[in-house]
Amino acid sequence: MATFLLKTEPGEFAFDDLVRDKSAVWGGVSNPAALKHLRAAAKGDEAFIYHTGDERQIVGLARVSRASYEDPARPGLTPDGEPKFAVVDLVPVRAAKTPLTLAAIKADAQFSAFELVRQSRLSVMPVPTALDKVIRSLTGL
DNA sequence: GCCAACGTTGGC
DNA sequence: GCCAACGTTGGC
Predict the structure, then answer these.
(1) What is the pLDDT of residues A62-117, one digit of tens each?
(2) Which of A59, A131, A62, A134 is nearest to A98 (CA)?
(3) How long is the CA A83 to C1' B3 vector, in angstroms?
(4) DSSP code of A27?
(5) Dihedral angle of Cα A36, A49, A117, A110, to the nearest 10 degrees
(6) Strand B bases contacted by the protein (CB, 7 Å)
(7) Out of A6, A34, A58, A60, which could bridge A95 as a Cys pair, Cβ 3.0 to 4.6 Å?
(8) Which of the nucleotides lies closest to A56 (Cα–C1')?
(9) What is the pLDDT of residue A84?
(10) Class of residue A22 by CB neighbours under 10 A (exposed 0-12, middle 13-18, buried 19+)
């Protein structure tokens, strides 16, 4: 089971919205690298939800309740037969006891190779197992 | 509000 | 197919 980190602008879609609505279709990504990661998301995978903008912190954990599929709003396939624009269904797991800020992540050498730090514009990324553990420990997730 | 980093587009 | 110009995103 893999873990991902999903970035969202809280003004558009926040973790609290997911908790309130019980589930959500998550997508709207068009960056090719982010889409590649999103297409790899399988049912049962988990995802840290990170708020961009003024917050810049990991605020909660979600579970993938439906593996990535073609975005109904933007149908189409790649030449490889993959959904051009993928989405996943998410359900909330729990909110972080202690949100983990980008500043704290950047200040921690364990995260120096993490894509969140290295490529600020990437909105979907896999979380390596070692970092998954660190994040869960720091956030209480 | 600015800028760095990265993607995309279009002319050649 | 290359690359300059432009657009977008996200952090500061």
Answers:
(1) 999 999 999 998 888 877 778 889 999 999 999 999 999 999 999 999 999 999 99
(2) A59
(3) 34
(4) -
(5) -110
(6) 5-8
(7) A60
(8) C11
(9) 87
(10) exposed
